[in-house]
Design goal:
The complex is a heterodimer.
Chain A (H helix, E strand, L loop, with lengths): L4 H11 L10 H19 L3 E8 L5 E3 H4 L3 E9 L2 E2 L1 E2 L5 H4 L13 E5 L3 E5 L6 E9 L18 H15 L3 H21 L6 E3 L5 E3 L1
Parallel strand pairs in A: 5-6
Antiparallel strand pairs in A: 1-8, 2-7, 3-4, 3-8, 6-7, 9-10
Helix pairs in contact in A: 1-2, 1-5, 2-5, 5-6
Chain B lengths: L1 H12 L6 H17 L4 E6 L7 E3 H5 L4 E10 L2 E2 L1 E3 L1 H7 L7 E2 L3 E6 L4 E5 L1 E2 L6 E8 L8 H14 L7 H18 L1
Parallel strand pairs in B: 5-7, 6-9
Antiparallel strand pairs in B: 1-10, 2-8, 3-4, 3-10, 7-8
Helix pairs in contact in B: 1-2, 1-5, 2-5, 5-6
The chains are: A alpha+beta, B alpha+beta.
Chain lengths: 211, 183
């Protein structure tokens, strides 16, 4: 059964020994819950969405805003049932210095320029369509009756993240250190138990790119 | 308004101790830092004139966009190589006088976002493209908590009546952890 935000707020408040929310109001805890769930989802790629992208003839670059308003991370791009190969942005020039206007009968690769631009290569000379699979930014929690979008087994990790911020607020550094170490270990453990999709890695110059 | 939300978050986590003026400045610094890490990027077409050696890309992108880094320039469908002034002087001492099809660009002045093309273009084209990073007015919602923690890290680290190096350290550690999850 899905858990409501109010239940989590109560649990977290008890954990930080503030059951009456005297130190931190429930509204503030709800706000932190809404923000921390984004990091929990991003760490575990739990809530994924797929949207079609209508590609334009002879066009390589597409802004994230033109694809969907709630993209945290693009995980793959599919042309029908075929996954396009991810490639670092700085490798495109090595493959073909004229990559920007290169065209072909079908899409072959996708790349990310920074965090707001998707490159699909080569172009097609006709309008077409691909499916973009991405980790979704979860809706902002505006009410305690909101059902959490994460799976129930991921909620303890989310609770720890919020608790960490509240301990930071209370300047309880000893408890925060112990909690933070547990949280990091949990994230690593959760990721190893789940199937691995294409991971986002750093390119040689230290900037974000696709592996 | 994201900036107001972030600064409110800073005040909440610091229990009202953070200085409003300093944290507003730290907000701008953190956004610039994220821009240099290519968190805010886009591309734009631009037009050149014949023989135009230098291009002011801040003018190209317009006053509404605060350009941070020029990453890639496309001229006549080809991506130009990036070179330094010293490298250009070694390649061709009179590189500024050459005219032809550009193959390379040099950042002349990083603060004013002026780049020189080598050689200067011998034809005018309207289909050139520049890829760049910029500082937005508002960051993404999921980055706001990270930005608030980075601001707190700096605020608690500076000399003031509420300096707290331990809290500053933990703010930085938690912020880095959050940023790594969305990388």
């Amino acid at each position: 059964m899905a858990t409501t935000a109010g239940t989590l707020i109560t649990n977290i408040s008890i954990r930080v020994r503030d059951p009456s929310n005297t130190g931190t109001s429930r509204a503030v805890v709800r706000d932190l819950l809404s923000r921390c769930q984004q990091y929990t989802n991003a760490a575990l790629d739990s809530v994924i969405n797929t949207v079609p992208l209508a590609t334009i003839a002879d066009t390589a670059a597409y802004s994230f805003a033109s694809i969907a308003p709630d993209i945290i991370r693009i995980k793959s791009v599919r042309d029908g049932t075929r996954d396009l190969s991810p490639i670092p942005f700085n490798r495109l020039k090595i493959i073909n210095p004229a990559w920007y206007n290169a065209s072909g009968p079908r899409f072959e690769t996708w790349s990310l320029f920074g965090h707001q631009t998707l490159i699909i290569h080569p172009n097609r000379q006709v309008a077409s369509s691909v499916n973009v699979v991405y980790t979704q930014q979860l809706p902002v929690i505006t009410s305690e009756s909101t059902l959490m979008g994460l799976q129930d087994d991921q909620l303890p990790l989310l609770e720890r993240m919020v608790e960490a911020i509240l301990l930071l607020k209370a300047r309880d550094m000893e408890a925060l250190k112990q909690l933070f170490d547990e949280t990091e270990m949990d994230v690593v453990a959760e990721k190893t138990l789940r199937p691995q999709d294409a991971d986002v890695a750093r390119s040689d110059d230290g900037k974000r790119t696709t592996a | 308004m994201a900036m107001a939300d972030v600064l409110a978050l800073v005040q909440t986590i610091s229990n009202g101790a953070a200085d409003a003026t300093a944290t507003a400045a730290f907000y701008s610094d953190t956004i610039s830092e994220l821009a240099r890490q290519d968190w805010f990027t886009t591309s734009q077409t631009w037009t050149n004139t014949i023989g135009q050696l230098e291009v002011n890309f801040q003018v190209v992108t317009g006053p509404l966009i605060n350009l941070v880094d020029l990453e890639t320039i496309i001229y006549n469908s080809s991506e130009l190589d990036l070179a330094t002034l010293i490298e250009m002087q070694m390649i061709d001492f009179q590189w500024r006088d050459r005219v032809g099809r550009p193959t390379t660009f040099v950042i002349e002045d990083e603060s004013s976002k002026v780049a020189a093309l080598y050689p200067a273009p011998d034809e005018a084209r309207t289909d050139n493209v520049v890829f760049f990073s910029f500082t937005p007015t508002d960051a993404f919602y999921y980055l706001e908590l990270y930005i608030a923690l980075r601001i707190l890290e700096r605020e608690m680290m500076r000399q003031s009546n509420h300096t707290d190096m331990q809290m500053a350290t933990f703010c930085g550690v938690v912020a880095k952890f959050f940023l790594n999850t969305v990388m």
